Amino acid sequence: MGELTLEELSARNIVAANNLSLKPGQEQFIAPVSYSVAASVINPATSWQRVVLLDGVVAGFIHGNFDPNSEHEEFRACIWRINVNAEIQGQGVGKFAAEALAAEARDRGFDHVNVIWEPGADGPEAFFHRLGFVDVGETQYGEIIGSLKL
């Protein structure tokens, strides 16, 4: 694996981020219903969006949210979306992105990070569990809420 770095999402890299490929079956897990519902009230000032560069080429994307005043605890410090190009999944890009978001959360004074996913055979549950997220509840839509202590 080459050098991994983070860069803010920008006009220069957004097309590459939007064109990241998925493995067959993953498309159904990209945006849980809870995130779609909450997206209507996200404050752009609390959004944290980064691309992961592998040797200078966009290889992944992570979107987090840091809003200590959110009325929903699961959205105060959370991963909204994480996507790694299909051809390089399993090589540490997603872990790098999630650890960077966790470090940012810690720097902002949070003691944990949450993520929500839909259960399913091709879903991200095993990935989040490998990172140390533990199931702490369910949304009203039956999605799993995972939490990572920092």
From TrEMBL:
Keywords: Transferase. CDD domains: NAT_SF. GO terms for molecular function: acyltransferase activity, transferring groups other than amino-acyl groups. It holds the Pfam family Acetyltransf_1. It comes from the Bacteria. Residues 4-150 form the N-acetyltransferase domain. This is GNAT family N-acetyltransferase. It comes from Cryobacterium glaciale.
